[in-house]
Amino acid sequence: MIVRDRPNLWDLLTALRGSIVPRIAVPVLVLAACATAVVVLDRITGAVPRLDGSAFAVFGIGLSLFLGFRNNAAYDRWWEARKLWGGLLADLRALAREAEVFVADTGARRAMLEAALDFIHAHRINLRGLPMRDAPRAGVVVLADAPHPPCAALDGLGALIAAGHRAGAVDGFGARSLTARIGGIAQQQAGCERIANSPLPFVYSLLIYRTSYLYCLLLPFALTATTGWATPLFVAVVGYMFLGLAEVTEELSHPFATSPNGIAMDAICRAAEISLAPHLGRVAPPPLAPVDHYLS
Amino acid sequence: MIVRDRPNLWDLLTALRGSIVPRIAVPVLVLAACATAVVVLDRITGAVPRLDGSAFAVFGIGLSLFLGFRNNAAYDRWWEARKLWGGLLADLRALAREAEVFVADTGARRAMLEAALDFIHAHRINLRGLPMRDAPRAGVVVLADAPHPPCAALDGLGALIAAGHRAGAVDGFGARSLTARIGGIAQQQAGCERIANSPLPFVYSLLIYRTSYLYCLLLPFALTATTGWATPLFVAVVGYMFLGLAEVTEELSHPFATSPNGIAMDAICRAAEISLAPHLGRVAPPPLAPVDHYLS
Amino acid sequence: MIVRDRPNLWDLLTALRGSIVPRIAVPVLVLAACATAVVVLDRITGAVPRLDGSAFAVFGIGLSLFLGFRNNAAYDRWWEARKLWGGLLADLRALAREAEVFVADTGARRAMLEAALDFIHAHRINLRGLPMRDAPRAGVVVLADAPHPPCAALDGLGALIAAGHRAGAVDGFGARSLTARIGGIAQQQAGCERIANSPLPFVYSLLIYRTSYLYCLLLPFALTATTGWATPLFVAVVGYMFLGLAEVTEELSHPFATSPNGIAMDAICRAAEISLAPHLGRVAPPPLAPVDHYLS
Amino acid sequence: MIVRDRPNLWDLLTALRGSIVPRIAVPVLVLAACATAVVVLDRITGAVPRLDGSAFAVFGIGLSLFLGFRNNAAYDRWWEARKLWGGLLADLRALAREAEVFVADTGARRAMLEAALDFIHAHRINLRGLPMRDAPRAGVVVLADAPHPPCAALDGLGALIAAGHRAGAVDGFGARSLTARIGGIAQQQAGCERIANSPLPFVYSLLIYRTSYLYCLLLPFALTATTGWATPLFVAVVGYMFLGLAEVTEELSHPFATSPNGIAMDAICRAAEISLAPHLGRVAPPPLAPVDHYLS
Amino acid sequence: MIVRDRPNLWDLLTALRGSIVPRIAVPVLVLAACATAVVVLDRITGAVPRLDGSAFAVFGIGLSLFLGFRNNAAYDRWWEARKLWGGLLADLRALAREAEVFVADTGARRAMLEAALDFIHAHRINLRGLPMRDAPRAGVVVLADAPHPPCAALDGLGALIAAGHRAGAVDGFGARSLTARIGGIAQQQAGCERIANSPLPFVYSLLIYRTSYLYCLLLPFALTATTGWATPLFVAVVGYMFLGLAEVTEELSHPFATSPNGIAMDAICRAAEISLAPHLGRVAPPPLAPVDHYLS
């Protein structure tokens, strides 16, 4: 996640970190070059066919419709992913407090919270597709061979509650509170996995990229007569808008990647460790700070 | 569900798998042919009536409005269907953990989880309208004659809980936890059946297809004067946009079909089997992998 | 509810069932006739004032905004109504399973489920404004004199639980589960009554119909110069789009009416009877089938 | 709330009740007069500056964007307010049934329901900013001096449950059910107070009214050349659309006012009295009927 | 939060408090000056390149799309923040009533409510990034050294419940009710922290500001031919619309800042103190009143 204040004049002119410009510079320049070629040809031969501007408007409206939809859908995925992680953090904090109330034995309680922290790290590593063996917690490394490590971590937490309930250390009220809390965690986990495993329909990507490129390639034929040598500039600006938006939405629709706009899951895992530290009798680690405006 | 990375240049030019082009190629070509005929007639007779471009813009806006609405509605249906299936997966995992806590007897617990797996398969088969007798699980085949097999599977699960509760093996807390979980499953099941049984209002399909075709058929009369021989190309691009979107939305609005964008219900059922395997004392099966970019 | 597959070419040309055409044919023809009169007058006198096309575009955008909003609002009402009925079905199924678990006595349990079926029929009849005395269930006819029959049916169900709880046949867990379920049903019932009793603000209807008609009446003055004798056709198409959408939204915003797009409440009540049949020890009735593409 | 059927032809031409026309007639006429002045000046002097129509289109799009947003936001506030009141009605009905189950003593139960009715009336009066002393219920008048009368009514209900719980008349299950229900009521109450106390950001009102007026004042300069004497008519229609929508949204965004589109809270309070009457052993009062199409 | 009635004519002309004008006056004037320079150059040299108006329309549509999206997203953040704070207020009121029911000892109950008030103030101070040591409550100042003061306050509340539960003063029903309520509070707290810590993606700010400025800088080249000396006025109006909206959305997207449209968290904390006063045996403080139309 990029953490920056609102852009000032200087940022507007120069910001590349967090900007989409570097990634679309090549295609935009290619489109501008094509536009230049069309204008040159038109000036030399005078035989370049000319398209109608008002018909082009309809074309542009259709394109806005595609891009507008995809932008909303991608942003919704990103924001839902963030909501789910915020909810997981709240559920971990609530779990700690409920364990405090319903589990008298400190050791059993702490084992549950360690399992919960194992879960959140395994969940993060699983969503990012990283190797589970490199996890920063021993409890997670142990789960590396499980068919589904985050589920295994929650199963472990469930087994602790089951053992406590059978031993009489956790009464019915406690068992119900704690399992309901884990049920809520499982819902949010499944929500994250849904976003990670179900990309936006591929057909939209094809429709949008194909239409955007066609539009920018045909635009010079509509502009050359009226706009002349400013056509390439215009095509570049329109290309910047449309390809830039397509690129942003591509990135936002994968909120668990380690891209500039990915969810700062490392920071949220750390926040969970900070919030659970008092319950575990530990000193809280410091919160993660952004490096070069980027929070992982 | 089509599982592909973002399209690169080559994909943009050639991708047909997951593309909508094959299905709309014929009508788009017919529309382009009509446009060609209009241009030819205009060049020969000079008496073809000409329509006004700016009035056409209004027409296009109305059409964008229809298509934009239908696109959002269809995508919402698809995404809600995916959410419901993600929620079912989470509920099955939570059910397994709650059974672990509240049902001490391993045999009774496993019978409940088998019933839950029967349910999810029967639900999948029911949504797809497939024959229940061909189900991969014996427990589902048994239900084939029930008036509503998925409900019968959940009824069976409920009966196990009722029997356990009356025998004293499941206490009040457990009965309440487990029935509440089944209540949640029933809500998500009903949500899926709602989407499957209530298509988008038919009248929208008529309005959209009729207006799209009329628009593309009238467009040449507006373009021929200014755009000339490029008119058929233009009509084809606009037809690709509008008919392509209509086709995509038709497909997304039926998320339980076995179309390229259908929900990957087989894969989710398998994910449920993987997650429940440790609770059933089984070895987890491997996750389903996409075949030719397609995950069923 | 109209149940049809996606329209094929023949349907596009001919479908009237589920189409909006029959209801808007008269006003659209009147608008086209007015347009013809304007063109004729213009050709004869040459003194017909001409309006500017680009200014008209703004007008059209405003109109799209109204229609787009109303379309979304109406569809949301329709879809929410469908969701509520799907939720009621799920709640009835869950109630049956919870009664199975928490109410040991078969007679008491069945009385509860009969009361639940009375409720859903009374609720349906109440939403449609039909006479309660013609209900197909004796239990509903009995309630015809109650100030609010659906509430009376749920009150009866509540009284059964209260009696069972006081007699010791339903323990605290059961009482809490069953009353919570009835509370959920009451929320969905109130949601339906909200939609039935709170139409879309009347002022929108006025704004939209007045603006649509004004637009179509003024349009010929903008088109006559450029579009000539094709003006009436154009006005008819625009009128079809705008009045058609206004008509569809009028219908969808009243989802409990017996219109072609009304919620198929009869079919859902039947589905509830099917799902509850095994719990009542009855043979399940067959599901309702659409008649002439229409499911009531 | 205005209760009318869909407008027929006569209504379209004449309806003022529920129409926005009377409130915006003066500014629309002033705008039309300004437009007339511009046309006259242009005809006399020929020196009136002329603005470009296509640039105006952009301006209009921006304005549609503002109005579209505000319309959605205002309607969402109105519909959410209606949802919250529907939810309160359902919660009161559920409370009555839960009290029936968990509170054996009729007197104690009825006292609770009276407190709930006191709450809903106090809540209505509080939202409308009316004097609490004029309330139609003695139980509400008593609360007039409390710092927050609706909270005081719910506190009273809570105190009854607390007393019953300590006296053993309400067991743990009942206490939990009833307090959870009151918690739900408190959430919906806070939702209503949020809408009442947090208007739409004032800055939007400024932006929209300023831009609408500027637009309508500048429009004649764009139209005079092409549209001539029809310009004032056109300006009046555009002013009707834009100012009318601004006015409607102003009204809908204050859903608790006694305006034509305000929530019919009197009718809902009455519906609560009707639903609770059997539980209180009373004869249900008749439902409120609209007066001159208006339901308060 | 700005608290004003709807603007009258005088406000429309003069209102600066709550207006966005002061903050965008400089860039708008600069843009108008640039436009004037272009017109002057065009009149003197006649060699200024001219851009096509209809192509500009597409550009404007793209921009509307960006601004429309950002406006919706920013408003949703603001409104969600307001919802969360309304929910916190409701939860505090419900907590007080549940404590009344489930905690017989007045001292223990009041200690819990004090901890809840500590939490809400610590939460407010934390969201605004103010120094915790300057808090108006001693209970908050004590938490200043905790790694996360609002969590520490809720942990304190949880510890009180745990102690009461172990001492037998709070039974299982009470422990479950109260911990569930704190769990709900934790969810809303995490929601607020999510909004505070996850700004809108920075890339949108860059795209929008860059495109808005480019648009306004290029606009004179499109208008100078047709609009002449009115071009600077037009550019200023368009700049007012686009930059004004960008500024409003910047502000709304940070709902916890002390800006004119920030959430009135001081007032809500005071409302919580008023609602809890009777439960704490205190005289309720007066509600906060706006100062110069501003409620902090």
From TrEMBL, chains A, B, C, D, E:
<keyword id="KW-0813">Transport</keyword>
<feature type="transmembrane region" description="Helical">
    <location>
        <begin position="20"/>
        <end position="41"/>
    </location>
</feature>
<protein>
    <recommendedName>
        <fullName>Bestrophin</fullName>
    </recommendedName>
</protein>
<keyword id="KW-0812">Transmembrane</keyword>
<dbReference type="Pfam" id="PF25539">
    <property type="entry name" value="Bestrophin_2"/>
</dbReference>
<dbReference type="InterPro" id="IPR044669">
    <property type="entry name" value="YneE/VCCN1/2-like"/>
</dbReference>
<keyword id="KW-1003">Cell membrane</keyword>
<keyword id="KW-1133">Transmembrane helix</keyword>
<keyword id="KW-0406">Ion transport</keyword>
<comment type="similarity">
    <text>Belongs to the anion channel-forming bestrophin (TC 1.A.46) family.</text>
</comment>
<feature type="transmembrane region" description="Helical">
    <location>
        <begin position="53"/>
        <end position="69"/>
    </location>
</feature>
<keyword id="KW-0472">Membrane</keyword>
